[in-house]
Structures are given as C-alpha cells and as structure tokens.
C-alpha cells in the first residue's frame, strides 16, 4: 500500500460562551493602513465598551503587527490565515473605520457559520462607512447572511440597542419601509411616452448590444463591483476586457503637443489648477501632461474597440506608474470636453457626446451609467452622470444632508458654472503617490435621480430614488469639505423619504449614481423611463423613498 503525506489539518478552535470575535480589514496600501490606524483603535474601543455593557467579551482575532504598527488584515492570504484561527460557529464582528479591500476577508466570511456583524464608525475623516457598504454589497452578492451597525461615537441608544439585539438573536432587523417594488406598468398603447421610451431603448440595447471596456477588473477588492457575464449578457451588455498596460503603452504615443492642447482647452474654459514644484506633495505641470495623455489614449482605445462605456481601475498597478486617472474620468463623463482626434486625424472622437466612464471599474455603475446616458440623451437632457462614495452625513437646517464625495472628479456640468467652477487639486499622497489633478468643486443645487445596480440572490437588481442636491451655508460647506478629503468634489444631498439608517441598512454598495434633471417634473419622467428600461432589461426594480410612480 502506497503511503502518502497527508496534511495535518488542526481541529477548529472552540468558541467561548458570550464571546464575539473581531477582525479588522484594511487597505492593501500600507500608507492608508498606517494613516487610519488611530481611527480603527477608537472604533474598536467603542465596540468593546458596547459589548461589555451587555455582558459579552469582544476578542480580537489577530494582533497588531510590530513591524507595521497597525492591526489591519492587509492581504487575502493574511485574511485566510486569520480566519483559520477563528471558531467557525462563533459570533463575528468585522469592524471598519477605513476603506477596506473586501477580498481580504470574503473567503473566511463565505465559510463562516456563526452570525456576522459588520460595524463602522460614522465620521467624516475616514471612510469606514464607505468600506462597510462595499463589504455589505459583496456579502449580499455572495449570499452570506449578515447584520450591520454604525455609530458616531459609540454612545447613542440606537447603536447600543442594536448590539444587544444582535447578541440576543444573532441578527438585526432594520426598517425598510421606504422600499417598494416597481408597480406593474401599463402595456401597449396605454403606456405613456416615458414607459414606451424605456422599453424601446431596452429593446434596442438587446438588438444592437453594447460593450463596456474594462481596464482590469476588481479595483480595490470590490467584489460587489464585478458582474458575471451570465448576468450581464442577457441585458445586451458585453465586456471588452482590456489591460491597463495597453493604456500605459498608448499614452507613450500621445505627443506633448496633443496633451498640452487639452490643458489649454481647460484653461480657456475657466478651470484653474493649484500648481507647485514638489512632485511628492504638489500638483505639477508634468503630472497634468501625463493625465492629458491618458485622456487622449483612453478615447483612442475606446474607439479601437467600439466601446459604449469605459472603466479604468488605476488604484492598483497604474498608481505606481503614472498620475491619477480621475481627471480623465470626469472629462469623459461630460458632453463639453477637450476634443480628441482619431489617430488618422480624420474624426473627432465622440464629438458632442459624453463617453460614460465608470470609475474604479465598478460594473454596477457601468450598467447604470449606460442606461442613464441613453435615457437622458433620448429625452434631450444633459447625460453627465457620475458615481459618488456615500461618504458621511449629518443634520443641517432641519434635514439630514449627506456628503457624497467622489475620489477625484465630477463632470463639469455638475458644478454651478461648469469648468469655471472647477479647480484641479493634487490627489493626496496617501492614496495617490504619483499625484495628478482632480476636478474639484461643490455640485450645484438641483433635482437629482439616484440609483444603484447590484447583485442579490443571483440576479440583477436596481434601487431608484429622488434626491435634492442642496446648497449649504458657506461655513458648513467648507467644514464638510475640510473634514473629509478637501481635494475631492462633493454633492450635498437629501434623499427624499429615506432616513440615514434606512439608507445605510438598505444600500448594497459604497457607490451611488447621480444624474441631474432641469426640474422636478422632468426628473420624475426620467426616473420612470429609466425604471421602465431597467425592467425591460430584466432587472428587478425597487423604488426607494418618495418616488412619483
């Protein structure tokens, strides 16, 4: 009989009674983990106090690394090793005070059999709640049950009562009364023009099909941002999988004169730039030149492959090679932007049109941006659309106002005076060592349609709602900008008929998609057409808050 060397798999550890185990997932970038560690320590202190108050012990499942000085899980391999030491049936808390790469912990969470609680701080300085929403979107896609909680300072009754509910029952019941299914829409000639438009656009999409160009999938561990082909293709949308190395190579072929023409166009349009000389901390003309080369290169590659929308990963790989992609992304999403000629000089690429860009290659955003672009364009509206991180929020003037913030650039038409309201700030060195400009500003007040495409139960879903982009008092607006990332553009938004906790409990992504309409009636019509198009594409449509359907 042949003898084989068998692995020695240890018996799983045994859970201790009235004990929950805590893991802290972090970034892949050590600079971000180091900078955010103090915020994580404070969140864990709040959680430990809350568990102690209900007679439970909160035990950290992994220690602080003396070499790095922080206690974050910082890779997928490390996450697997940590979860191998956790009792598989134990109550588990995933505590998030910073941005986190979900794939570090998804293998362990996929197999974990005990109750799972995702918990975040609710502070503007660090994107813990953004990380929580991204992780929740991944768990929802994966079909792994979980509960969630969040807190400003660890002392509010809502937070403490939810901790008690979770330790007593293993789950937390949140209020989702703001969500309702899309009602049955009229068929045939009884359907109004918006419903007919949405259905016609969906039929056209299925017939002629569309391509989303993806410069490398899986940005920053966002498992929730990847839509499998088997779900995507039945809508009529297909992927062109591109490499960021090809983008970098194409950038080498763009001349300095072509890049400098982009800069001149932006300056003539009124955009200003905060320039300096220190490459490590300042925005420099050299960084801008490389960004403009990326803009030209992206359009030419998109033309090569005939794509209908484009996404650049950037934040792994290219971040070590060249300045940020964000300025490029904001420009692409705007109808008015610097002209770029085809290689042969015979055509202006996408002349007079936006090329929808989905930041961080978030494919939920890709589907949404493509649909928005087609509906808004068919209705004669400005199709400029973008995603924002759901960064933070607080009461202001008797309303709950969210600070939505994208990590780099919005389309200029989202700002009060277009490019004349836009400033280019250097991307922060913690996340962007090679720098590059943002397209920064505060979004104009107005009527907004918000949305999110996500995966749940093995199928595509979309949440749709209405919001008001609002103008805050100057002092409050400046305070909010300064306490988040002041180099990034923001929108101050009130989600109609949706409370803070309802939104947090329901939203299945770190990103929310926004598009403007010129008035309330037009926004309602655009939302209806968008809902009809999504439904005809095969998505399950959910209406959130006060929606006039």
What descriptors fit this protein?
six-stranded antiparallel beta barrel; five-stranded parallel β-sheet; 549 residues; 19% strand; 34% helix; globular; alpha/beta; single chain; 15 helices
Task: Describe this protein's structure.
Helices cover 34% and strands 19% of the residues. The chain is built from 15 helices and 18 strands.
Short description:
With 549 residues, the chain is an alpha/beta fold. It has helices spanning 30-53, 76-83, 106-111, 128-142, 157-169, 193-208, 229-232, 244-251, 256-268, 285-305, 326-332, 363-378, 474-483, 500-506, 520-537, and strands at 19-23, 57-60, 92-96, 116-121, 147-151, 179-181, 210-215, 237-242, 272-273, 309-312, 385-396, 399-405, 423-424, 446-456, 459-469, 490-495, 511-517, 540-544.
Draw up the topology in text.
Elements: E1 19-23, H1 30-53, E2 57-60, H2 76-83, E3 92-96, H3 106-111, E4 116-121, H4 128-142, E5 147-151, H5 157-169, E6 179-181, H6 193-208, E7 210-215, H7 229-232, E8 237-242, H8 244-251, H9 256-268, E9 272-273, H10 285-305, E10 309-312, H11 326-332, H12 363-378, E11 385-396, E12 399-405, E13 423-424, E14 446-456, E15 459-469, H13 474-483, E16 490-495, H14 500-506, E17 511-517, H15 520-537, E18 540-544
Parallel strand pairs: 1-2, 1-3, 3-4, 4-5, 7-8, 7-10, 9-13, 15-18
Antiparallel strand pairs: 6-18, 11-12, 11-17, 12-16, 14-15, 14-17, 15-16
Helix pairs in contact: 6-15, 8-10, 9-10, 10-11, 12-15
